[in-house]
Amino acid sequence: MRCPFCGHLNSRVVDSRQASDGAAVRRRRECSDCERRFTSYERVEEVFPQIIKGDGSRETYDRVKATRGVRLACSKRPISTKAIDEVINRVERRLLEQGSREVSSDWIGSALTSELRDLDPVAYIRFASVYRGFSDIEEFLHELRDLDRRDDAKAISSGEE
User: With contact defined as beta carbons under 8 Å apart, do 33 and 8 qualify?
Assistant: First the structure.
């Protein structure tokens, strides 16, 4: 593997261990030329379906793009990077389990919104406001009321009230 510091092609693995939920292997490597250490991650290459956008165009699924949107919604919230990665991993797992060759961007947005609803209400509203493109304050307030009703129902069913 190419050293990110000097560009040399030879490195040796110093340590290996499972990363996150076992979906990747984390490797500590040492460059045989400059002797600096760096980390690499190895994961199974999965073939994701094409994403059909709202205008009918198609693009390859992009984990970085999905993660960027979720991180933006979660910014300045008490949500760990690990929790964000777990949200993306769960959505990707559901995406792959479908076995479809094409999936609408709506499906991905809805799946991410659903995950964020359970993770953090503020992050959920932030993401939903962009994903659903609220056109006025009434749509925004309607979503807040719906979220509040859902939380009340959850509290009642769990015996918190």
Answer: yes
